[in-house]
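About this split. The held-out portion is used to measure sequence recovery: a designer receives only the structure tokens and must propose an amino acid at every position. Recovery is the fraction of positions where the proposal matches the reference. Here is one held-out target exactly as it appears in the evaluation file.
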């Protein structure tokens, strides 16, 4: 059995290889991609007995996704996803300074799977459909988080010079109604010029089909309400 620590970066992997007695057999820096995976197979082949099952190669790495991890799983290796916070605590426990280094982190990951692997999760080789679902779910999550961050920035800016817009759209600044109206009237002066008919046309063009008249009236009422003016130049900025 071999224990592998894989400290990964965008373009390379620092590898540490331990035997069952915990002895350090090798350290290497491998390229990301096919050539690096080939080099890893060649490295491990020099230490594994003939006909040894690939599952006896236990790999610790701080991620559970990506082509490299899928390549490890497809090769039959047993791969453990180690939480970075947990590996950081191991590093502090085993080193006086607790400082981070690529080579040191690879060794820490190898020791984790050698000693405490039962406390960590072995990654299952998912089907192609499951992998597609995971990628789509993560992309969906990332897009929602990015949208929320942008909405927070917009809310902060509107609070500085256009509080009536916050009254009109509340927490739904990323919604189609807000985007349609603010795209046409991004400031108080333009908002004052909007009529219910104009807002209704904007909402219809954005895709709203129900409650057009009532929603338009509420938006115009909020945008036309008195508000403290910003200093000259702030609205244009």
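Reference sequence for scoring:
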């Amino acid at each position: 059995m071999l224990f592998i620590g894989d400290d990964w970066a965008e373009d390379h992997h620092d590898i540490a290889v331990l035997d069952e007695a915990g002895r350090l057999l090798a350290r290497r820096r491998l390229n990301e991609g096919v050539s690096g995976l080939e080099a890893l197979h060649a490295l491990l082949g020099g230490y594994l007995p003939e006909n040894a099952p690939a599952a006896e190669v236990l790999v610790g790495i701080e991620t559970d996704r990506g082509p490299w991890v899928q390549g490890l799983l497809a090769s039959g290796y047993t791969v453990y996803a180690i939480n970075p916070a947990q590996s950081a605590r191991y590093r502090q426990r085993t080193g006086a300074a607790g400082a981070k280094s690529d080579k040191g982190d690879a060794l820490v990951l190898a020791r984790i799977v050698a000693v405490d692997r039962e406390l960590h999760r072995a990654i299952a080789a998912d089907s192609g459909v499951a992998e597609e679902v995971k990628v789509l779910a993560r992309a969906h999550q990332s897009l929602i988080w990015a949208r929320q961050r942008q909405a927070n920035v917009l809310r902060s800016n509107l609070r500085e010079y256009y509080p009536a817009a916050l009254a009109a759209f509340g927490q739904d600044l990323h919604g189609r109604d807000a985007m349609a109206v603010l795209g046409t009237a991004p400031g108080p002066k333009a908002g004052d010029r909007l009529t219910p008919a104009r807002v209704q046309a904007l909402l219809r063009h954005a895709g709203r089909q129900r409650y057009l008249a009532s929603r338009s009236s509420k938006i115009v009422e909020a945008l036309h309400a008195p508000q403290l003016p910003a200093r000259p130049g702030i609205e244009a900025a």
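Annotator remark: The radius of gyration is 28 Å.
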